Amino acid sequence: MNHVFGKLQASLTRQVILMNQTLPLSRNMPSIQHPVWSSASEGRYHSMPTHGIGSWKYLLNKKRTQKKKKDRHQMRQIVAATDSTYGTLNVKVSGYDMTLVERYTQYVHHLCNRLRINVSLCYALPTRTTEVMLMQEHGTKMFVDAVLKTHERVVQLNSLNTTVCPVFMDVLLKHQPEGVQLSVSEHTEADFKARFKARPELQELMTNMNQ
Amino acid sequence: MAAPCAGMAGRPLGQFLSCFRRTVAVRTGLRQFSASSMCRAASQAATVTERGTSPWNLMAAVCLQRLPVISAESSPLEQRFRHMMQQMELEKSLLSDHELRLLEDAERMSRKQSDDYDSDEEDSGRDQDIVLAQDLDDSWEQKLKNFQPAPRVSADVDKDLSSVQRCLADSLVLLAEQQVGGGKLWLLPQAPWQEGETLRQTAERALASLPAGFSATFLSNAPCGVYKYKLPKAARTDSSEGTKVFFFKAVLSDIAPTTAINAPFMWLQKSELQRYLKPAYMMKVERFILDL
């Protein structure tokens, strides 16, 4: 043990000697040995030598196109189906119980990540409220028995490989919880347009203009 | 459609992709899938590429699965955890509107019972309800008592191997007894391949040829497994060295019990398959049957 310590000490002292030897070199030629200082004196304050050391945005090209407001909600390109892959598919999960629906969507998403399936979007459709009305026993009036909310979540997949498809679908179906409906369909432009709210005044004005 | 050349080993998926025509499948629906397959280009059937004469007979088999109907039983640990989480959530939760109403009504009743009650002092601002919250509660309790859920597990149905309703918590695979070579064997329903049809169509034909009318949705055009069977040396000729069976996965669409079939069918769990299938066959088949 002792001679190990001895070796350690020797190496340490050797390093210290080396350090001492380099120092006088550095003092003589500041511009070469310390290039950092020369540029630092322009942008950095002497007491904060590493200030802004992680910044890189100033190196990028500043010409960014101004995004117009109507371009913000452009539809993503629908991928066409080829011989070995499906096109853009929508995996729609819907049900009454929100926790189940959301958890199942998470499961679908994680499974896609695991199987390296390309997930392009994951969004929610607005909740639809259904009122269940029952006829009153002694009377003709209907009264509200229950209020059911249908939640829908969509996971959009791009170019699902046909080899992975049966495995993927099998696993999804076997893990489908009770009370949750699963539907897989192709994504169309109508699906995309359905997410927007209808604007009746605008449509009225358009029809008036066109007439 | 070109048949795959001889000398292909039992590699299930990737190589067969290029051979198969893709059909556009639109699936919607609940647990029950409905797939309408629109053939992309009918002209593809007309193009017959060169077909090397292979000594293998081709067959396609269908692995028809009945998915679990109810969730699986939870293990004792899961039950204890669930119980604990429910308790925690109950303790952390706030009172709902209905429960607040119950408390208010109870308080109002107790105030009414007391001697110095003046209805003008009632400062709830609400009219006297005809239907108290407690009455609603009682009527809901009554409705709950009248509801009888179906039993999850019925032992006698479980024992009937040919019933579709057995073992609702597990996924089952259909086995049929078919005439193969010399004798009858229990195996996944299969049919021989004919010229001019895709292997998936052969599998659909195999399913349709069963006496019981099962309606199923095929999951994909690509097969999920292969079983190669070489004929014993005595029976081998130049044109038939053996058989290759390609398996396709399908999911049963309707769960309604069909009329009593006397045909030899069995719905088995994966663990029970071993008793009825030959070992070599079982080895290839169990690779793609998911026992989740």
Report the mean per-residue pLDDT of chain A as an integer.
Answer: 79
* Structural class based on helices, strands and sheet pairing of chain A: alpha+beta
Give the overall form of chain A.
extended
The residue ranges of chain B in which pLDDT falls below 50 over 5 or more consecutive positions are 1-48
What is the number of strand segments of chain B?
Answer: 10
Provide the helix percentage of chain A: 40-55%
Biggest β-sheet of chain B, characterized? 8 strands, mixed
Strand content range of chain B: 15-25%
Written as H for each helix and E for each strand, in order along the chain, the element string of chain A is HHHEHEEHEHH
Average pLDDT, all residues of chain B: 75
Give the overall form of chain B: rod-shaped
User: How would you write the strand order of the largest sheet of chain A?
Assistant: 2-3-1-4
Provide the structure class of chain B: alpha+beta
Quaternary structure classification:
heterodimer
The most extensive interface, with participating residues per chain, is:
A-B, 24 and 27 residues
Instruction: Provide a count of the helices of chain A.
Output: 7
Architecture blueprint of SSEs:
The complex is a heterodimer of chains A (211) and B (292).
Chain A: H1 2-28, H2 30-33, H3 35-43, E1 89-95, H4 98-114, E2 118-135, E3 142-158, H5 164-174, E4 180-186, H6 189-194, H7 200-210
Antiparallel strand pairs in A: 1-3, 1-4, 2-3
Chain B: E1 23-28, E2 34-39, E3 56-66, H1 76-92, H2 97-113, H3 133-146, H4 155-159, E4 172-180, E5 183-187, E6 190-192, H5 199-208, E7 216-218, E8 225-230, E9 242-252, E10 265-268, H6 270-273, H7 279-285
Parallel strand pairs in B: 3-9
Antiparallel strand pairs in B: 1-2, 3-4, 3-6, 4-5, 4-10, 7-9, 8-9
